[in-house]
Design goal:
Shape: globular
Radius of gyration: 18 Å
Number of domains: 1
CATH architecture: Alpha-Beta Complex
Helix content: 25-40%
Number of strands: 11
Largest sheet: 7 strands, mixed
Order of helices and strands: EEEHEEHEHEEEEHHEH
CATH superfamily: Spore Coat Polysaccharide Biosynthesis Protein SpsA, Chain A
CATH topology: Spore Coat Polysaccharide Biosynthesis Protein SpsA, Chain A
């Protein structure tokens, strides 16, 4: 069994909802680009052999950051969608002879993820297919609405979880799942959904709510507060 674990970070998006001249992953969070913080967090996990970052063709910002990145980071050309970018990264791993290894797929805009959660995910999955993902229980009341934004019904939340990343799957299995979704024109909002389309059931691994995905500029203040709390707890520990 190949127990090597690689990480793939999709960073080829433009972050349209972020309202910035730069793709959001390059905007600064507490003085450091978001993506640099994200990659440093992943590099804290000793079991991650290397981190591939999918960047957009013609990306002019990436080269200026490489000196600040962990030595385990490498890059590849991303695609027009997140799924295409992940597929490109998986294809690169397969070229390197790592098709039977495992891959942690993570969002570039989740800089608050903690190594302890990633390690719990790895331990919980324990190299058993189809893999699993970090997630948090939904605590809000959830409403389903019609086209006029009127409430159609209240959705029971007892078994609803908010999917997060990283998500951990076998390289060859995830590549097959994403390829099939592409061929059948099935949209996947995360990698676990592609695995689900194969009829498989990834495992949920509970994660604290601090693993924020930065989507809008207003999220920066919350992310800054989370980082400050995490650093304070690390120092006091």
């Amino acid at each position: 069994m190949n127990t090597k674990i690689w990480a793939i970070v999709a960073a080829a998006g433009v972050g349209a909802r972020f309202s910035s001249g730069l793709p959001k992953q390059y905007c600064e969070l507490a003085g450091t680009p978001i993506i640099v913080r994200t990659l440093r967090r992943l590099a804290e996990v000793a079991r991650v052999a290397g981190i591939g970052v999918g960047i957009a063709p013609g990306d002019s910002a990436w080269a200026g950051l490489t000196a600040a990145l962990p030595p385990s980071v490498w890059s590849f050309t991303g695609g027009a969608t997140r799924s295409e970018t992940v597929q490109n990264g998986l294809a690169e791993l397969m070229k390197r002879g790592e098709g039977d290894a495992w891959v942690l797929v993570h969002d570039a805009a989740r800089p608050c993820v903690q190594a302890e959660d990633i390690n719990r995910l790895i331990d919980a999955v324990n190299y058993e297919a189809p893999g699993g993902l970090l997630a948090t229980l939904i605590s809000d009341t959830v409403k389903s609405v019609d086209d006029t934004l009127r409430v159609a019904k209240t959705v029971p939340r007892a078994n609803l979880w908010r999917a997060q990343t990283p998500q951990l799957f076998p390289v060859d299995l995830l590549h097959r799942a994403l390829t099939q979704c592409c061929e059948r024109q099935r949209e996947c909002t995360d990698d676990a959904q592609a695995i689900e389309h194969l009829g498989m059931q990834p495992s949920i691994v509970p994660c604290a709510g601090h693993n924020l995905k930065i989507t809008r500029r207003s999220d920066l203040a919350l992310a800054t507060a989370i980082l400050q709390e995490q650093e304070s707890n690390a120092c006091s520990g």
